[in-house]
Amino acid sequence: MLTRRVLPAGLLLGMALIIASCAAPSGGPSSLGSAGSDAHIPLYARVPYQPFSREAAIQIAYREWRAFGQPVVLPHTELPFDNERAEGLWQRVGDYWWLGLSLGDRDQGFTGMHDQNGRIFSAAEDENFAWSAAFIDYVMRMAGAGRRFPYSSTHSDYINAARQGGSGLVISAHPPESYAPQRGDLICYSRTHRPMRYAELPTGRFPGHCDLVVATRPGLLDVIGGNVDNSVSMKHVPVTTNGLLANPDGTNVDPDNAWFVVLRVLYDR
């Protein structure tokens, strides 16, 4: 009589992770991510279970915005609370870092108030732990972009990649005066002393910010971004009658943010 050997649960899990790290994801070529870089991602997003979806990205952004209390940031105003340090929300920011970045990235250990070693950093150090790019990474990852999005803790990395037009990527860069952002696209500005222009791309790393477009209305875009006044927040961005962020001469319609590039996201669905 043969007996069946039952393997320990820990060994089974280890074997599963090894197999998962060696398999190329169905969402894109393995060359866009190192082996095992997404082994920490839930199967539904890593495989993914569904095609990379515009509606999924938008609804994930809305979900996170609702979790933070649905704040809307108006020009020249600041939110009267610090959401990123609130109980239940600093952990959520930690999820953006952990799930948005590739496995092994030093910044994965950050939360809304801790560094990678668990030390609570002061509000004066916030700019060293800016999580707006991690939020975009998280949304793209959970929506099913797989290894076709260049996840990074710095917006400029995927802005430059989109401008260079890397093979297999799901983003492409466009001037704000010639491409009208659609729902699910990303709009970006630089935080440099002198606002950047589209013609300067690609360039080196630079501080910046991107928001996800969740709705288009006559003369306005509704966008959601992370780390906007230390929260996941919505902004209302003015556009031309044609839905463009800039006039034909390149001047911005928005007097408060110097949007200089639109990242068109090439969803499967």
Could you explain how this protein is built, in words?
The chain has 269 residues and is α+β, with helices and mostly antiparallel strands. It has one domain. 24% of the residues lie in helices and 14% in strands. It contains six helices and six strands; from the N terminus they run ααααααββββββ. The chain has helices at 9-22, 43-46, 54-67, 90-100, 132-142, 155-164, and strands spanning 171-174, 186-190, 208-217, 220-225, 233-238, 259-265. Strands 1-6-2-3-4-5 form a six-stranded antiparallel beta sheet. Strand 3 and strand 4 (220-225) form a beta hairpin. Helix 4 packs across helix 5. The longest helix is centred in the N-terminal third of the chain and has 14 residues, at 9-22. Residues 1-35 have low confidence and may be disordered.
* Percent of residues in helices: 10-25%
Q: Provide the low-confidence segments as ranges.
A: 1-35
- Domain count, please report it: 1
Could you give the order of the helices and strands? HHHHHHEEEEEE
Overall form: globular
- What class would the helix/strand composition place it in? alpha+beta
Distance between the ends:
53 Å
